[in-house]
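note to self — DONT lose this again. spent like an hour looking for the file last time. sequence + predicted structure for the chain T wanted, 161 res
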Amino acid sequence: MQGVSGRVLVVDDSTIIRQLITVNLELEGFEVVTAADGAECLETVHRTRPDVITLDVVMPRLDGLRAAERLRADPRTCRIPLALVSACRPDELDAGNRARVDAVLPKPFEPAALVKTVRRLASGGRASETGGAERGGVRRASDRAPGDRPSALPLGRLPGR
């Protein structure tokens, strides 16, 4: 492992998903802290001071969208880049846009896309500035083959918009 690339708070109610994200990010030099839901995220964020937070949407106690809204409303956390990592429905993506998350990574995700998205956010870039798909921006739904999923969707440039 080359030096630490930044600290990431991974928030997901699935132990397996937390472990999968943790392993992939740690292999790329990130320090990872985890939380099992949005409430634990809010309890942990001030102590851990992450550079990026990944949030699942559907979680007990406090879901990822409400956690994102609270993070954005707090002056101490409002500038931390947020990435939704979730099997989102279109209405959840719209809610993510309102909560001002910086990127959306659909589940199931490619580990390389996860690392690329987190690295971009940790370095101060927004997914919407560089595009999320591997070929220079988000492809529209009509450009994809059935079953083909984009690697990461920057909010504000969602397919079909």
